[in-house]
Amino acid sequence: MLILRIATDDGRSVDLEVASAAEAADIALAVALARGRNHPLMRGLAQVSEAGSQQALLALCGGLLAVGWLSGHRAAVRTGGRALAAHLAASAVKTTLKRLLLRTRPNEMLETGRYAFRRGRPDRGPLQSFPSGHAAVSVAVARSLARSCPELRGPALAAATAVTLIQVPRGAHYPADIVAGTAIGVVAERLAALVADRLSAPTPPPSAAHGPEADGPEADGREARPPPR
Fold this sequence. Notes:
The protein is mostly helical. 60% of the residues lie in helices and 8% in strands. The strands form two sheets. It has a two-stranded antiparallel sheet with strand order 1-2. It has a two-stranded antiparallel sheet with strand order 3-4. Helix 4 (74-100) packs antiparallel against helix 6 and helix 6 packs antiparallel against helix 7. The N and C termini lie far apart (91 Å). The model has no long low-confidence stretch (mean pLDDT 91).
């Protein structure tokens, strides 16, 4: 165990027990970046970043799927369906981890002076820092949109990057939470795409060697034709 000393919002100096130097560096960076989280500009950016929340992106994917289905636009149905699959896969993984691992969010730590990162069943949002759900879901959906519509690649990935990076200075996550959430989003989207490709793959035609034409009269005629002299 290592001891990391930090200053809380009210000026108190507190010692935190951490498991490694990497965890200490992770906390120290989060603390340094989150000091300005209460500035009006940062509060505004934090509100904007909620466009990358699980609920907002679920509405986006579902809306795209519904509009495509109602209008008969097959490309929109395909894009919305794939994005929704990536969203659900990333959400399932990040939710499972949040229910198994307890980690105090940076803003909670700076306000109370208490910190923990261990196995457990956190029952409150302030204790569910790991991993970043915003990062997981926004990255998964953005990559899915980029895969289905290459023309959306730049805006989608830029939006996901902005949503992801703002989580540390707003005091919601540590850098390690962001890295873990991003990895979940990348893997979840890739797996969802593989499954979707497999389900949508056309059935291959029967082999010519076993097709009906191979046993018909033409085939018999070809076989009976004398070889050239």
